[in-house]
Structures are given as C-alpha cells and as structure tokens.
Amino acid sequence: MENRDDKLSLNEIRKKRLQFRLRQFRKQWKIFYKSTYGKIGFYIILVFAIISLIAPLIEVHHDSISYVAPAIDTTAPSILASSSGSFGGTAMVNGTPITLQASAISELGSDSVYLLGSNGAVSAMGLGASQALAKGKIVNLFNVSVNSTDKPMGISVFTLSQGIDPISGSQKLSNFIIVSTSNGNITLATISHNSGIPYASSIKSIDLNGKLVLPAISSVLPINTPQTPSIPFLNITDPGATSNIASIYAVVSESTGYYLEKISDSSMKVVWSSKISATSAPNNLQFIGSFYNSGSGQRILLTTSSEAYSFFTNGTLAWEKGVPGTTFYGSIFIPYSYQVSSNSYNQFFLMGRNSTSSSVYGFGIKNGLITTVFNSSSPNSVTAISSSLGIGGFPSAFLVISNNTAYVLSDPQVITGNVSLIKTYGPFTYNPLYDQVSSQFIITGVKGGIYDLSSSLGTNPFNWATVYVPGTSGVISNPVLIINGLNDKASIGFVGGNGVAMIYSATGTTTNPMPPTFHTPSGTIFPLGTNTEGNDVWSQFVASFTPDWVIGISVGLIGVTIAIVLGMLIGYYRGFISTALDTITLVIYLIPGLALLIALTSVLSPSFLNIILILSFLSWPFTTFTILGVIRSIKQRTFVDAARVSGAGSGQILRRHMLPNIIPLLIYLTAVNISGAVGGISTLQYLGVAPLTIQTWGAMLNPLQGNFNLAAQAPWWIIPPAIAITLFITAFIFLSRGVDELVNPRIRRR
Q1: pTM for the full model?
Q2: Could you tell me if 599 and 485 lie in one domain?
Q3: What's the pLDDT tens digit per position in 20-44?
Q4: Whole-angstrom Cα distance, residue 132 to residue 538?
C-alpha cells in the first residue's frame, strides 16, 4: 500500500510540476508577446520556418543548382532592321501577308529587301549595308496598277547575269523583280543603283489573256546562300551566256481551262502555252533546276488537289501522277542541292491527306516515282515540311511538322527524333527554313512564334526562340532567309499583318539575366527570372531556406552546447584547468573572426559539414564568456551556498540550481548564434571562400562581388536573397530582444 501511495504521490507531483511549468510558460509568453520586437521576430521566423517546410512543394525545379533554363527561353535573335515608314500597306493573300524578298548580287549579301504594298507600291527597305540607304529606310521603286478586282498576288526577286564585264572579267549581275496581280498582269523590273540608292531602271509588263491562278514565278531562285551558284543569264545573246536562260512561268484560268505559260524575261512575250488536264485549280507552281549549268534536266512542277504534274521547259508534259483518294495541299518543297545539280535521286516533296491519315510524299523529278516519306494517323496533322541540303541523295535531316510536333527523319519513314512545339504561336503551316551554315531549321508559326531547331536535335534541341506580335491582325508572312550585306550573315525577314517589315538575325544571343516571366516558348515559368548563368532564381531562392535554417540551427545549438560546458567549468571551478580553458577561449576570441573564418575554410575541405563545424568553432568563445560571467555571479548567491551546505555535489548544483537560471540567457544566445551563422555562411559564399554548391542566399549573391551593376541590371535576382538574409538575421535579433525583455524587468519597463 505504501508503494502504491508513493507512486500516486510521485505522479501527482509530476502532474503538478507540469501544470506549474505550463502556467509559467503562459505567463512568460504573455510577457514576451507584449514585446513589439519579440512579436515581430517571432512571426518572421514562423514564416521562414513554414517556407522551409513547404520549399520542396513550391520549387519549380528541384535541381536548382544544376538546372539551366533551356536556350529556347533565354536565347533570342537580334532585331537587325524594321521598316521605318509605310510601303503602301500590307498586301494579303488568303489571310496572310505577302512576304518580302531579297537576292544578293555580291558575295557580301543583300543591301536591301523588296516589299509589295496593298496599293501596288513596290519598295526597297535598307538593311544598313549601304550608307546611302539607312537601316529600315523605305524607297519607292515603282507602282503597279491595282483595284478592288485586280489585287496584288505576289512578288519574286532573283539575280541574273547580263554578260561578262570586259574590264574586271566578272559577271555583270542585276536584281530583277516580278510582280503579279490577279487579273493577269505581270510586271518585270530591273533594279539598278544610283549612289547606293536602288531604283527601277527598266520596267516591262505583260497582260495575259485570263486571270492568274497563282503568282507568276521565275525559273531562277533568289541567291540567299553563302556559296554563289551558277547564275542564269537574262538573254542567250549576252556574252558568255549558257543555255540556262531565265524565264517566267504563270498559270492562267481561261474559259476553256487552265494553262501553263512561259514568258521570256528579255521580251516579256509568251513563248508557249500548254493546257493543263486538270478540273480543279492548280495550287502549286515551282521550278527545279534554277542553277543547273544548262537547261537540261530542268522541270516546271505543278500540282492540283489530286494530281502532280511535271513539264519540260518546252511545255511538253513529262508525267502526271496522283495517289488514289489523296488530296494534296501545302507548298511543294525542294531541297536546295536539287536546284544546283541534276541527279537521278532528285525529287520534290508534297503533303497529302485522306479521310483517315495525312502523309508526306516524294515524287521523282524524272519519272514521277512516288515514295511515302512520312505517315500520320490524323487526316489534318501534317502541316509543314523542310530538309537539309540533300547532297548525295535523300536529305540527312528531313523535317516534318505534325500535330505541333517536329519530327526529324534520316530516311523515308525512319524517325530519328522529335520535339514538341508550343501550339500557342501556331499553326505551323509555313515550310521551315534551313540555315546551311549552322545546320539548323528555323520554324515559324503564323502567329509570330519563331524557333531555331538543331537538325540533330539532342538534349537541348532549340537554340533560340522569339515571338513577334504582329498587331491586331495576329499573323505574319512566310519568312525568308537572306544573306544580310550588313554583316555577311544569314538573316530572317518577314512582314507582319501590322504593316511592319522585320529583319532578325539567324543566330541568337543570350537574354540572361532574364526578368520574371510566366510566359516562355517552352511553357516554363520563372517567377523571379534567371541569373547570368540561366539558373531559375525562384527555385534557388526557395531552396536556400532549408540549408540556411539547418546551418543556423546547427551552429546555434552546437555553439551554445560547447559554451554551456566550458562556461560552467570555467565559471564554477578554480584551478589550472579552469585557467587554461579560460586562456584558450580568450585567445580564440581575440583572433579576428572573419580572418579566422576564411583561414579555416581554406585549410579544411569546405564541405557542408565542415562549414557547420567551422562556424560552430567560431561561435562559442563569445557565448562562453557571457555564460561564465553569469555563472560566477550566480555562484555567489545564497541558494547556492545553501545547496552546498545541504550536501549537494558540484554537478548537482550546476545542473539543478544554476542551469535553470540561465535558460532565458541560453535562448537569447542561441538566437544570436543562429543569426550569426547565417550571416557567416552568407559572407563566406559572397567572398567565394565557401563552396557555391551549398545552396544558400549568400551563394546567390556571389556574382555581385565582381559586378555591382547586377543590383540595378537584375534586381529580381539580387534583392530577394538580400532581403531574406536581412530579415532572417533581424528576426533572431528581435527574438533575442524579446527574450531579454522577458528576463530583464528594467528593459521591460522602458
């Protein structure tokens, strides 16, 4: 019974002791909560603790140190020129603008691009290559007559040779422009220069007997490649002329059907007219063999919705082919090398669809042999095609865009890889451009999205991206690739529905540090932008909460624990050991903290654990001196003497009588140590002494040391960690001030 009573009595004592401690805690909490400093510090710390706990959930990228934003988001082409004046309004065909054109007459590239306005004005826009024609300046060349029933259909620019210069021995090259209108009028103008300003030196036209179904084309492509091919001649009578003589081809609609007609560039007269055995209107007209050394092997290619046709240059039908049940659509695509040399493997490519699928077909130029290159199970999925040069056979990289996905093929129906496109800026109905120098595809969406895609794809397939907002019309023209005389490099040109002609570089430059954005080509969000390396600032900022907390609390607890042991030993005991420990502590305390911090970090391996140990080693001397002073004061009090007289040992006195009296002080010192530890690691990483692989706010500020302009250049990157460090340290200082007010009534009464 006595044992049971003793147990009940002991349990009651423990219960009452717990109740007493809870009452004391509530009382002390009320006192602490009245402290403005303590209250502010507590809530700041609470917010930081919550963010630290939920950090893994709100990080956009969990590998914040190694993650680098893709080039598609952080690399963009430069704007090289834009039209600074009106060129007669944006001419539209089937809801999209008529694109600009250019063709080089020198190895340096083009000094201007040519535009067709809705009012029939034909203009040149300077690229900045000539001082006489400033970048973006518009010069009117000539005008064609248009009205509500006779509208502009297209513009074509190409380069022809007019013989050999007897003095220099080089070819005399000139640019020519073809302009078509819907009622069958075709105008051909020769472009000359006067003091660097282009003008139309010769203007000839022909009015065909019927309406044009498609814009007239030249047998010559514009020169927009680094290697100058064999340039065709204007006239067979020109000195040094070969049999590759330029001609114009047009498809007209008459009451008796559709006709393919050849027009001489030199005389602007119809050479021949060949009726097309088609019941539906032709939707494609192309020429292959522009840069052949002779006219042999050249063909005129024409398609309707159900048939593909190949004509010899004398107007004779070479072959007519179709795929049963298939409707052809989109533009014919011909790899560039097939335009330079005649080979048995040359073919052109065309998209087709039926009720269940869509495909890409290859048609042999010489015999019309049909090859299926790509198949999709959706009837309207394939929207655009392109390829690399095609040297030696089938192109090494054949690009198909289907369902907003770009597929790269190495052979017919052999897919080597694919990558998704952002459909927001589609549809991608324009055949992508191929940059021969960089071996990259330039993909353009009708709504202004432009992407540079590596033909080899790889882990980061996109090299750059940009979005041009073409005003309220929301569309841009089919882009063209030109050789820009300003820098002798490839550029991209197009016309926006807002009536502005744009020239972009074909290479990208980094936009890092990138400002905060929630809209990127890849769809990734960057709430705090990126830094100069392309790292996601938001992810690094959020990921820094936990390491800073771990370092702060670890250093605070380790430092205070060491200080408690040493402070009690030195403060309570007398003798050699106490004096020696006191001296060692004083020596360490007197060494400049920052210098010792840097020295220890340099000597030891700067790992995460070592950083904590180094900071802990530097935090205990001050704490120890504070504790030992209080211990020596408490040692002189009466209750300690009473405990000693009652037979209590030194350990019991220290543990049961002295330690409880310094607990508020320990809380205060722990708070100070935690803030000091975070300040210490931030300083080390800012100076580059501690490893930047430890993700903290200080590591985020390290680049600021070598470039203070970053604070103004990228405030979204610099300000958040700076504020976090300041608030974290301030919060613990405020917390310690609140604890000080709790244990020091004199401060509380102020």
Answers
A1: 0.80
A2: no
A3: 778 877 877 887 778 888 889 899 9
A4: 49
